[in-house]
Amino acid sequence: MSSADPQVETVVDLDAIAHNVRILREHAGDAAVMVVVKADAYNHGAVQVGRAALAAGAAELGVTTISEALELRAAGITAPILSWLNTSDADYAAAIAADIEIGVSSTAHLRAVERAARASGTTATVTLKLDTGLNRNGVSSADYPHVLSLLQELVAERVVHLRAMFSHLAHADQPQHPVIDVQRDRFVEAIAVAKEYGLQPEVVHLANSAATLTRPDLAFDMVRPGIAVYGLSPIPEISDFGLRPAMTFRARVALVKRVAQGEGVSYGHEWIAPHDTTVALIPAGYADGVPRGLGGRIALRIGDAEYPNIGRVCMDQLVVDLGENRQGVQEGDRAVLFGGAPGDPHAQRWAELMDTIHYEIVCSPRGRVVRGYTGQAGVV
Ligand SMILES: *Cc1c(COP(=O)(O)O)cnc(C)c1O
């Protein structure tokens, strides 16, 4: 271990990303896989994950903003990239110049894309995002006829090319929920209506991770998984689906010391030593993405053993109890907060304790946390 090792880091296993993409491809059958790398690939690094996913057989990448898409292009990624959440004043000219597929959710969005395409004299590639019941992003049913007639004109003029139509599910994590079928039926109906306007998308897609893994009937031409790519089951109560968590969050023991019976540890002395003991100081706290609400409720793996966190989580540190027998733990050792190796604490456990989902847990490490990679030598 070199002294250059960061105090607190996430390590992303790109072999796990590749493994998870292969599992998703199996479930997708004949459908292509678009890997969702929004929010910097759920905090795993969009460029590195994007490259590893494409090398493992993903066909396309999906992001929310144009700037996320441009970052991937700037890194040399040439695969199709869809950006689906932008305001009407976004830089559509830059998206068109970089051959980014633009998701539109309203007539106003489509007008903005039209202006940019006409100004540059380049056909814009557009994907319609349809609201089939999530009532979030996507073309509303009231706006739909206006979007279709404008699109019909723009396609005829070759200002716009219609690549795809897609929608997003509200209840995919409950595979038998009746709203899933309502959304599927609305989606199919909306595609049929577009055909009445002479509009024929090349591909249509609906399924996120949960639907990809549990509803093969919804695969259409492409699936659009995010969280499963990162190795976290979208429905942990059903199965882990053989996925491998890609992110390990770890820190290096900064100090090992004795604490006498009756002494309190950390702010507020919420933990009082019941007997003489040895504790280890871990330089990771709530500024690094360890929720303060987990204080005294988690355990960290050091070597082959788990040690309980004692007392409050502070801004940049927490303490674990090594017990009577410190089992060789010493300054500089790595302590795993959560990870993907056998015996590692799991992000899902943190999510349960915080009454949230593991998506939010893996998006939490930030600030001084340094991100590194293992696996896929030659890809990064
Ligand atoms: C985030 C997102 C996905 C991926 O969802 P997961 O549950 O992470 O698989 C797919 N499609 C859209 C539109 C999204 O916003």
TrEMBL record:
Q: Which GO terms describe its biological process?
A: D-alanine biosynthetic process; peptidoglycan biosynthetic process
What SUPFAM superfamilies is this protein classified in? Alanine racemase C-terminal domain-like (SSF50621), PLP-binding barrel (SSF51419)
Q: Which residues cross the membrane?
A: none
User: Where N6-(pyridoxal phosphate)lysine occurs along the chain?
Assistant: K38
Catalyzed reactions: L-alanine = D-alanine
The positions annotated for binding substrate are: R136, M315
The signal peptide annotation in the UniProt record is none
Gene3D superfamilies from the xrefs? Alanine racemase, Lyase, Ornithine Decarboxylase, Chain A, domain 1
Recorded protein name is: Alanine racemase
Species for this entry: Nocardia cerradoensis
Lineage, uppermost ranks: Bacteria, Bacillati, Actinomycetota, Actinomycetes, Mycobacteriales
Name of the gene encoding the protein in the UniProt record: alr
